[in-house]
Design a protein that fits this description.
Layout: H1 2-41, H2 44-47, H3 51-76, H4 81-98, H5 100-115, E1 123-126, E2 129-136, E3 140-144, E4 150-154, H6 155-159, E5 164-165, E6 171-181, H7 186-198, E7 210-216, E8 220-230, H8 234-251
Antiparallel strand pairs: 1-2, 1-5, 2-3, 3-4, 6-8, 7-8
Helix pairs in contact: 1-3, 7-8
Length: about 270
């Protein structure tokens, strides 16, 4: 009986010692991982790359470091690594099926990093939403909408969607349409539109601005105005040009299209 009790006491002591050591390693390891990630984020190596790559690299480094820490703790607890590998291999198919979405998102994140359709800070439209790219992680891309909503899109969905990047090019074209009464003279309207363009700031002289008759109906003529500006000035030019066109046409007494009212009577 005494021998059995001694064996039990020794077993519990060894197990308790391993658990205590494993807990200590987890606490110290977590602190070290956080410190390494913090230092890596401030390192000169990552400072030289853009925000998108930096965010993705930090996310991947975090996963790798915690995997190493968990493997070390399993080893301390005395679990044979061969047994762990065998269990993981036997569960691989089930886990893979359960994590199909996560694996798809991971693959999507890697593909986004390789092909780089956008960078952090770019304004994009994809998967039915639009906004500025705030963060790109291993599994998700975070977008901040124009009304300050935080939108999280799975990378797998984003990789398979059409992505429109409004910030990738240095210049953008502002396209506007306006209409006037059929009785107006097209050449005079065109001149007025070009006057409105000349009054608008931040419009580039090259490529040259465009204002021409582009269509119409029985009651109206439709004109198209196209100007070029820098991408960051797009919305300023869009709203200013709209206002200048309205003020210029109204100041010149340009008539608006007459509204047609159709009345049907029944006998």
């Amino acid at each position: 009986m005494d021998q059995w009790m001694n064996s039990l006491t020794e077993l519990l002591t060894n197990a308790g010692g391993k658990l205590l050591l494993a807990l200590l390693v987890w606490i110290i390891g977590s602190f070290v991982v956080k410190s390494l990630l913090k230092g890596l984020g401030k390192s000169r190596l990552l400072a030289k790359i853009d925000d998108t790559v930096r965010s993705f690299a930090l996310s991947a480094a975090k996963v790798v470091l915690y995997v190493i820490l968990i493997v070390a703790i399993i080893s301390i607890l005395g679990v044979p690594m061969a047994s762990v590998i065998t269990v993981l291999a036997s569960c691989g198919v089930a886990v893979g099926m359960a994590l199909q979405g996560a694996l798809s998102n991971l693959a999507g994140g890697i593909m986004l990093m390789i092909f780089r359709p956008f960078r952090t800070g770019d304004f994009i439209e994809a998967a039915g939403v639009s906004g500025a790219v705030q963060d790109l992680t291993l599994f998700y891309t975070v977008i901040l909408s124009v009304d300050n909503k935080r939108i999280t899109i799975p990378n797998g969905t984003l990789m398979n969607a059409n992505i429109t990047n409004f910030s990738s090019e240095e210049l953008r074209r502002v396209d506007l349409t306006c209409s006037c009464a059929k009785s107006e003279k097209p050449a005079e309207i065109q001149k007025l539109l070009m006057d409105a363009v000349s009054k608008t700031d931040k419009i580039l002289k090259a490529p040259e601005a465009f204002a021409r008759l582009s269509g119409g109906s029985d009651e109206a003529m439709e004109f198209t105005v196209r100007v070029w500006t820098r991408s960051e000035d797009y919305w300023d030019v869009y709203f200013d040009l709209n206002q200048n066109i309205v003020e210029t046409l109204s100041g010149a007494g340009v008539k608006q299209p007459a509204a047609r009212i159709t009345v049907e009577t029944q006998n």
